[in-house]
Amino acid sequence: MPSHAQQPAAPLPTSADEPPEPPSGGAGAAGEAETADGGPLARERAHLAASRAALRAMRQDAESLDTRDTAGNWVSAESLRHTIDERIKALADLSDTPLFFGRLDYGHDHHTTDSPAAPTPADRPAPGSTVDEVGDRFYIGRRHVHDADGEPMVIDWRAPISQPFYQASPKKPMDVVLRRRFGYTGGELTAYEDEPLSGPGADGGERTSRLLQSEIERPRVGPMRDIVATIQPEQDEIVRAGIGGTVCVQGAPGTGKTAVGLHRVAYLLYAHRERLARTGTLVIGPNQSFLHYIEQVLPALGELQVKQATVADLVAHVEVRGTDSAERARIKGDARMAEVLRRALRSGVRMPRESVVVVRGSRRWRVPAYEVEEIVRELLARDIRYGAARAALPQRIAHAVLVRMEQSGEAPDDRVQDAVARNAAVKAAVKEIWPAVDPVKLVLRLLSDADALAEHAAGILTDEEQRTLLWEKPARGPKSAKWSAADAVLIDEAADLIERTPSLGHVVLDEAQDLSPMQYRAVGRRCTTGSATILGDIAQGTTPWATGSWAEALHHLGKPEARVEELTRGFRVPREVIAYASRLLPSIAPDLSEATSVRESPGSLEFHRVAPEDAGEGTAALDAEVVAACQRALTQEGSIGLIAADARVPALADALASAGLSYLSPGEETTADARLTLVPASLAKGLEYDYVVLDEPAAVVAGEPLLSGPPARPTTEPAGEAGAARPLQVPAHRTGLRRLYVALTRAVSGLTIVHAQPLPAELARGKGWVGV
Fold first, then answer.
1. What is the DSSP letter of 559?
2. What's the CA gap between 550 and 255, in Å, rounded?
3. Which DSSP symbol is given to 523?
């Protein structure tokens, strides 16, 4: 497709570094070929300048609003002021962020509501746009911009009329004559590229956009960027999926699943703003480094109110000061623990031994013990939350008293029932029968008291699993206990069994493959009445409890009906790199499709092996080779990540410091002056760097602990004590290979592997590869 750039233009996107070509047939509306006004590029720049001026005017209008006499009270005034302040922030014009990135020229007038993609009343053509026999013209950008008369100059990318920018093709033009993409350098519009989709200029074939390719391959420095200008059709389908259902995205490395999830949030806030303003939205990431990396995406799209958190943040009922072995953490994260907690909680309910006698005035009203027991058993059978049942019990006893009052000729009303429910005798009975429970103390007792655990885990956990769960040295109380992250999840489960956890309108869960069943339950109860977007890659599951299938994960989330979409076309990892990493798939996720990549970065995969005789001197030779690889990578443009097994990080940190190379830690923002980050393999997930140096792959694989797996399903053979299921041994090798798969796929432009030990045998599989 033709690309056009100012001559001279420096520097231009790669796809525009060529002499300008005349527009193809159908590449513009009437008058596009005229050059008396400076040509198409000059006119597009003029529209950009006018749009920026209009955005400034919109911001000034918001800043000038006087709210002093418009609110009925100070609370309303503060709420209104906050809304206006947020509006002002959303209207900020970022000089280095393109205000619009594309243009659609339609074949017909798209004002009518019966059009294929009917716009909202605000989505009308921009002033000065050509509306003739060719049709309407719309500029597509990150936010809506209108002039002083309310006429739009830029259409929000989320509007229905903008969808063909992402979905239209020569085979399905969606009434679009021309799609134009714009190239920018430092915020200045420097090039454009036309793609005729229908009419005389369209040839019906798929073409590669060089401006799109240039944007995808732009060096990564700083936090994650939005992909609003480069969303692909399969991604757009997920982004615009309705709010009514949950979507699960199985995405290979570099397919943009995280960006898709964030843009989906932005779309849902646009399409359902009032609903989500009431119920809230939340993005859940694996760690704070990851959340810091993605935190600028939604604000760049004009969305400032979305909260971010880790699972640990959600369940922060206690201070986490302890750690669990992999085996103990796996058992605590098993879904069977939910039933153990439920049993422990309900075991505190005691059947009444005496009648409840309520004194009112000169009358005594007696509810016999057997009738109170019937009420208690009915509440237990309903299986409602412990706290709700406890709140209902005094009302039910009071109702029984009111029935006796009516039988004696009195006419009590609701006020009398409430008074009886607050009667001291009723309150004392409720306290004895259905005592209040602290979820922290409940979990503390289970982990400290072998008899209590045995009582409530009988037939659920094996004797060995129960011994593993118990603390070696029981804590004296909740404050002195060294709670682990898995304990906090158990406490959250117990808290929800007592009182219902509030539900949000929409939750995005990223890197979901790494959660335990109990963590899935913790996330699921935050969206019981809302929807969710689940993002992950089974092949990148690196925790001992990583899910084996999305069906299993969605079951624990409480969203078994969710739609599962698979993204296999990558836009970040070079083709040679993803093909090499995919050799691990038969060993780590045999059911997944192999990923492909649109990236073709020549020389993107290199190997450097330290000679055996040098490796025999310790790690000094390996460290030196790694440092040299980092120095070579720093001669390239963009960010560099040095990824190594966690145990190797201290030695490499010393080697970098000795060589005078400064480095960042994961979560610290890269800049033009600080581009090298030292990344433990355990924290590499979700991050990306232009160039990656991978240290000793064998050490990455070997860094995983061995643990017992979940119990085997019952068989006809004896299963051990009390018929309990027997645990299976799960080798850590697969988890280590998955960790290696993650490390191999962090590169955007180039990957260098430095090793002294032989590479894992699984990487030798495949055609045309020669081991090094």
1. -
2. 18
3. H
Q: Residue 373 to residues 327, 345, 379, 386, 427: CA-CA distances in angstroms?
A: 42, 18, 10, 16, 16
Higher pLDDT, 63 or 641: 641
For 90-101, write each residue's pLDDT tens digit: 788 777 788 999
d(CA 282, CA 531): 11
Output the CA torsion 544→549→552→558 (10° steps): 100
Q: 41: which 2 tokens?
A: 């590029």
Q: Are 664 and 293 in contact (CB under 8 A)?
A: no
Place 531 in a pLDDT band, splitting at 50, 70 and 90. Answer: very high
CA distance 648 to 642: 11
582: amino acid identity, one letter: S
Cα 478 → chain centroid: 32
Q: Burial level of 590, CB count in 10 A (0-12/13-18/19+)?
A: exposed
Greatest Cα-to-Cα distance within the chain, rounded to the nearest angstrom:
104
- Residue linked to tokens 């609903």: 275
Q: In 10 A of CB 535, how many CB atoms?
A: 29
Encode 480-505: b = buried (16+ Cβ within 10 Å), e = exposed. Answer: ebebbbbbbbbbbbbbbbbeebeebb
697 CB burial (10 A radius; 0-12, 13-18, 19+): buried
Identify any residues that bridge with 531 across adjacent strands, giving them in sequence order.
506
Residues 6+ apart with CB under 8 A from 36: none
* CA dist., res. 9 & res. 142, Å (int): 25
For residues 726 and 719, is the Cβ–Cβ distance under 8 A? yes
Question: pLDDT tens digits, residue range 598-611?
Answer: 876 655 899 999 98
pLDDT value at 687 more than 70: yes
The three-state secondary structure class of 534 is strand
Cβ neighbors of 634 (< 8 A, separation 6 or more) are: 640, 661, 675, 676
For residue 530, the one-letter residue type is G
Give the single-character DSSP code of 729: E
Reported pTM: 0.82
**What whole-number distance in Å separates Cα of residue 44 and Cα of residue 697?**
50
Q: What is the pLDDT of residue 398?
A: 96
Cβ atoms of 161 and 110 within 8 Å: the answer is yes
Q: What rounded mean pLDDT belongs to the chain? A: 84
* 3-state SS record for 78-116: HHHHHHHHHHHHHCCCCCCCCCEEEEEEECCCCCCCCCC
> What is the 3-state secondary structure of 183-236?
EEECCEEEEEEEEECCCCCCCCCCCCCHHHHHHHCCCCCCCCCCCCCCCCHHHH
Q: How far apart are CA 131 and CA 137, in angstroms?
A: 7
CA separation for the pair 12, 741 (Å, rounded): 35
CB contact at 8 A, 310 and 286: yes
Q: Does residue 390 contact residue 436 with C-beta atoms inside 8 Å? A: yes
Q: What is the pLDDT of residues 571-601, one digit of tens each?
A: 888 889 999 999 999 999 999 988 888 876 6
Given a cut of 50, is residue 766 above it in pLDDT? no
CA 705 to chain centre: 27
Phi, psi of 695 (to 5 degrees): -90, 130
Mean pLDDT check: name the lowest of 351-360, 598-607, 633-642. 598-607
Quote the pLDDT of residue 448.
95
DSSP structural state of residue 664:
B
Output the pLDDT for position 728.
40
189-198 pLDDT per residue, tens: 999 999 999 8
List of residues 6+ apart from 614 with CB closer than 8 A: 621, 756
Cα R_g (the chain), whole angstroms: 32
Classify burial at 517, counting beta carbons within 10 Å of its beta carbon; exposed 0-12, middle 13-18, buried 19 or more.
Answer: buried
